[in-house]
Amino acid sequence: MPTYTLSVNGKRVSVDAPADMPLLWVLRDLLGITGPKYGCGIGACRACTSHLNGAEIQPCVVPISDCANKQVTTIEGLASGGTLHPVQQAWLDEDVPQCGYCQPGQIMAAAALLKRTSRPSDAEIDAIQNVCRCGTYCRIRSAIKKAAAS
Amino acid sequence: MTSERNTLDRRRFITFLVAAPTLTVAARLGIDLTADTPAMAAKGTTATGEPTTDTNLGTTYVLRVTSANRIVFESPKADVGQGISTALGMLVAEELDARLGDVDTVLADAADLPGQSVGGSVSMRNAYTPVRELGAQARARLVTAAARRWGLPAATLTTHDTAVHAPDGRSASYGSLAADAAGVTRPDVPATPKPASRHTVIGTPAPQREGRAIVTGATTFSLDVAVPGALPTVVARPPTISGTVRSVDASAAQAMPGVIAVTTIPTGVAVSARTFHEAMKGRDALRVSWGPGPVDTVSDSTVSERLQQAIPPFASLPLLSNHVDGRFEFAFVNHAPMETNSATADVRPNSAVVWASTKVPNSTRSAVVSATGLPKNAVTVHVMRGGGSFGRRLSSEAPVEAAQVSQALGRPVKLMWTREDDVRHGRMRPASMHRMRITYLNGQMVSFQNLSSAVQLDFLDSPVIDGIGIGGYPSIGSAFFAITQETPYALGAETKALNEVPLDFPTATWRSVYSGHNRAAEELMMDRLATRLDRDPMALRIELAREEQAKTVLRTLRDEGGWGRSMPTGWAQGVGFHKEYNARAGCLVEIDATKPAAPRVTKAFVVADVGIPVNPRGLEAQFAGCVMDGIGTILQAGNHIDSGRVRETSFADFRWPRQRHAPLQFGMRLLPPTGSIGGGGELVVPAAAAAVASAYGRATGSEPWRFPISF
Question: Which CATH architecture has domain B222-293+341-416?
Fold first, then answer.
C-alpha cells in the first residue's frame, strides 16, 4: 500500500492508503478529521467540501493520489487560531445552521467563492450546489453577503 | 385533541429534589399523582420534601447546578436541527436568571420514561411548564442557600447573571451555592415560574447554542462518534425494497484489502473494514443471491390504481347546487436527512452500548434489546445530535444492524447507510391521493367532501399517535387523519376520510404527517372555489375562516406580505394557511414561472401565531425550512417506484432544492403572545406547500394536481 505525504490544516501527515481511496475517508477514518461530512459519496451533496491548494474540492470524489504533497484545508483549518474566518463569523452572526451537518461544506464553498470573487452576485451565490436539507439557504445568502462586506 | 393531551402532561408533572453533591432537581411524569402546582414530591417523599435517593424513580427532565457554575440541563428531546436544545435552555435560563451561555443542554440517554420522544411538534408544548417549574425550583433553593449563608431574609435577595445578589452588594455565583442548595428541602421563597410579563429570555431571539461548534467542525454527529476500534461497516442491500438474502459468496470480498469481516444480517450483508472506502469496495465484491421483497410487482402505476380504488364515490349532489371538484396526487418522498441513517454499537457478551441519533431513544433501546437478546438494563443508548430527521429518526434500523454486526463480531462497529441505501431502502412519506368536492348553493357553502387514500403509514413509535386508538376507523392512519386534519374554513357539512392501501413500503411520518399533502390540497380547493366564484383567494379565505385568530393571521399576511401587488406575466403570488399544533400560520409566496419547467420562488413571507414564541430566531429558521419543504415537495423532489425499486439513488436524481431554488427574500411576522403555547416545527409545511402550488397555478394559468410538478 503506497504512502502519501500531504499537509492537512497546516500539519504534515503521512498515510498508508490505496491510491483510489477518496480523500474524505483518509481524513475521516485514517486521520480522525470529521469536519468534512459524508452525504452522498458522489460529489452531489457537497457536505464534504474542503480546499485543496486553496481551491474548492469535494473530498468524497478526489482520490488520495491526487493530494500527494498538496495542502488540504478542512473546516477545522479555516479559522486562524482563535479567530474565526469572516465566513464562519458571518455564519454565527446570521445564526445559519439548523442541524449543522452540511454547514462545514457550505462554509468552505462560500469561502472559496469569496476568494474567487470578493462581491458575489445573487447569480454567483445561486451557483453554489451544496444541498441543505434543513433549508437554511436564505440565511446562507445573507451570511455570504455579510462576509463579503466585512 | 392535542391540547387536551398536553394539559394532561402538564398536570401530571411533578418536580423533586434529587440527593446529590450539588443542587439537582428533576421532573417526571407522575403516573398516579396529580400536581397542579409544583410539589416537592416524589414517591415516598411527597410530604417531607426530603431529597430522594430512589434511583428507580427515573426522570424526564433533570437540572443540575455544578460547582463550576454551569447549569446542566439533561434534555429528553433529541436535537436534530430543530433548535430544541437552545429553546429549552432558554426556559431554564429564564427561570433561573442565569446567563444563557451558562446553560448547557445535553441529550439524555434512553431512560425508559414517557416524554422522551420527539415528533408532532410536541417538544415545547410538553416541556414549557415542567422545565420552567424546574428552573424556578432550583432558583428558590439557590436564593435560600445564599440567604442562610449571609443571614439575610431570602425575600430581600435578587438573582441575575447566574448569581444571587444581596442589597448590600454581596453576590454569590450559583456554582458557589450549589452544594448548600442541594440540602435545601424547603425553600424560603416561592418556587413558582415568572409571569410572562417578566420574561426577558423567553421571546427574545437567541442564536443556536451549538453554532460555534458547528461552524468550526467540532460538533460530534452520530457518524463522528469515535469509539476506539469501531469498524467502519456498510451493508449490501437487495435490489428491491425489503428483499431477502438467499445466499452469499463472500470469498472475493474477504480477500479485498482492508476488509475485516463479512456478516449476513436479516436486512443484507454487512462488510466491516479498516475504512468506509474499503468496506464499500468489499461490499461491491460480494456475490449475493437475493430473494424478492413484498412490493416487487408494484410500480407507480400500480400505486396510483390502488389509491384510486381505495376512494369511494362522492355522495350525490343536492338539487340545483354547484360544485367544485379536485383530484390531487402526491408521490412518495424520502426524508433524506443530510446525515444518513447510522449508528455505532459495542455489544459485549453481557452488555451493549449504542450511539445514535434517535427521536425515540426508548424504542431504539427496545429494538436493540430484541436484536441482541440482552436484558434491557444491559443496553445503553446514547443519543447523539443528528444531521436532520424530518421523521427519519423515528425508526432504529441502523442501531439494530450495528448491534447485530457488533454482536456477531464481538467488536464495536460504526455502521453507515450510504446515501443510495437511504434513498432506495430508507423510509418515505407515503404516496397519496385526495378527491375533494365543495358544494355551494346561492353563494352559500353546503358541503365539503374530502375522500383521500394513502399507502399505509408506519407510525412506528412516533409520539404523534400517543393517546390515539384505532377506534371505529379501519386503521390507525385513518384515525390519525380524522383527528388531525382540520379544515379551517366553514364549508358546510364535512365528510372526511382517509383509507389506507396496505402496500408494504417502508414509510414513516414526514414533517407534518398528512397535513403537508392533504391540507395543501384543501388549500388548492380554496383557490379553485375562489376562481369559480370570481373572488380573491385571500379575501375568500378570510371570509370563510372559522376562527378569529385565523382571520387575523390571514389579514396580517395580506397587509404585510403585499398581497395583490401587480406582477409581470408569468409571475404570481400564492397563499396557504394551516392550523395545527395549537398554532396557526399563513404563507405568501411569489413565483417566477416564466419558464414553467424551471420555476423560482422569489419571495416567501410567513405570518404565524404560535401562542408563546420562545425563540423567535429559532422559529424563523424552522419556518424557512418548512418553506423549502414546500418548494421541494411541490415543485421537484419525490421518489418513483419501478417494480419494487426506488428509481432515485442520491442527491443527483432526488432533486432536493438547492440555493438556486430558494427564495431571494424571506420574511416572517410572529403575532403577539397569547398565553397558550403551540408547536412550530412543522406548522408552516402545509401552508408553504399550498402557497407554492397556488402561485405556480396562478402564474401558469393551470390547476396543478400531481406533485411534484416536475418529476
Answer: 2-Layer Sandwich (3.30)
CA distances for B667 relative to B121, B572, B624, angstroms:
22, 17, 9
Q: Residues of CATH 1.10.150.120 domain(s) within chain A? A: 86-149
Residues of A in contact with B259 (CB under 8 A): none
The identity of residue B99, as a single letter, is: R
To probe the interface with B, which of A37, A76, A91, A101 has the most B CB atoms within 10 Å?
A: A101
Mean pLDDT, range B433-458, rounded to an integer = 96
B509-518 pLDDT, tens per residue? 999 999 999 9
Shortest CB distance from B629 goes to which of A45, A95, A135? A135
Taking a C-beta distance cutoff of 8 angstroms, is the pair B202, B91 a contact?
A: yes
Does B262 have pLDDT greater than 60? yes
pLDDT, residue B480, reads 97
CATH architecture under which domain B428-707 falls = 2-Layer Sandwich (3.30)
pLDDT-based confidence at residue B51 (cuts at 50, 70, 90): low
* Chain A residues close to B218, C-beta within 8 Å: 35, 76
Q: Do A25 and B275 touch (CB under 8 A)?
A: yes
For chain A, the distance separating the N- and C-terminal CA atoms, rounded to the nearest angstrom, is 46
- Under 8 Å between Cβ of B388 and A101: yes
How many helices, marked H, and strands, marked E, lie in chain B? 17, 30
The DSSP call for residue B47 is T
Ranges of each domain in chain B: 2-213, 222-293+341-416, 428-707
Q: C-alpha cell of B613?
A: 414564541
Classify A86-149 by CATH class. Answer: mainly alpha
Q: Do B371 and B343 touch, CB atoms closer than 8 A?
A: no
Round the CA-based radius of gyration of chain B to a whole number and report it: 27
Instruction: Confirm if A15 and A8 have CB atoms less than 8 A apart.
Output: no
Cβ <8 Å between B223 and A34: yes
Residues B563, B554: contact at Cβ < 8 Å? no
Three cell numbers, residue B560: 404585510
Q: State the nearest Cα–Cα gap between B476 and chain A, in angstroms.
A: 29
Phi, psi (degrees; rounded to nearest 5) at B12: -85, -5
CATH code for the domain defined by B2-213: 3.30.365.10
CATH node for A3-77: 3.10.20.30
Give the distance from CA B488 to its chain's centroid: 23
Contact B215 A91 (CB under 8 A): yes
- Up-side HSE of residue B219: CA atoms within 13 Å toward CB? 30
Write down the residue that cell numbers 413565483 correspond to: B591
Contacts A34 to B, Cβ<8 Å: 217, 220, 223-224, 226
pTM over 0.90: yes
Q: How far apart are CA B39 and CA B37, in angstroms?
A: 6
Q: Are B522 and B436 a contacting pair, CB within 8 Å?
A: yes
| Distance between CA atoms of residues B452 and B103, nearest Å | 47
C-alpha cell belonging to residue B604 = 416567501
Residue B573, SS3? strand
CA-based R_g, chain A, Å:
15
Number of H helices, E strands in chain A: 5, 5
Does A30 reach chain B within 8 Å, measured CB to CB? yes
CA distance B683 to B582: 10
Instruction: Decide if A82 touches B, using CB distance below 8 A.
Output: no
- How far does the CA of residue A126 sit from the closest CA of chain B (Å)? 4
* Band of pLDDT at residue B58, cut at 50, 70 and 90: low
Residues A28-66 have pLDDT tens digits of 999 999 999 999 999 999 999 999 999 999 999 999 999
CB A39 within 8 A of CB A24: no
Peptide bond into B708 cis (omega under 30): yes
